[in-house]
Every structure is written in C-alpha cells, then in structure tokens.
Amino acid sequence: MKGTIGYAAPELFTGRRPTDEVFRDGMNLHNFVNMAVGDQLMVVVDQSALYREEGITKEAGDIGSKWTHEQTEQLISIFRIGIACSKESPALRMDMRQFEV
Length: 101
Known about the structure:
Blueprint: H1 11-14, H2 29-36, H3 41-44, H4 47-54, H5 69-85
Helix pairs in contact: 2-5
C-alpha cells in the first residue's frame, strides 16, 4: 500500500513462524495460507491477535463467528496479496505498484 513499509511479517497474521512444526515435508507458510484462504481462513489466523484487536476474551467465543462478511473479505484480500507476493519464483510475484491505493 502506498505510504507503508511494504512488508508485514506473516507471523503477524498467522501467529506461526516459518520454523513451526506444521511446516514439514515441503509445507511452507505460503502453501499453508494458500490452502486455507476461503473456507479454512480462520485456521491460519492468529486468533489471539484478533481477540486483542476486538477487545474481547477467548471465553466470549470464536472470533470468526463475530466478524462481519466485510471484515472477513478484507482479511482474505490481505492473505491473497501475501500469497501473490510470496511465490517461490520472484518472476511470478506481483509488482508492488499494483497494490497502490
């Protein structure tokens, strides 16, 4: 986005580091998020970060059920941009100028 640093660590959204146990046997953060975008989105989202953002406790329930359709679509857009910008081959990655707002 115009005026931003142009990078947000994936750990900010997923709560998982690239060295996490889930990333074995060829699985990586890019593929993990790519497989989850859509119906499994909340599986990859760091729920504790969302709870802090919304100012509610975990005991209040699943944050995914409290989010609006618009909020969910915005989160999907963020993940899709991350997926497009993190393809293995730099030649296949999207140009950041395409994301100016």
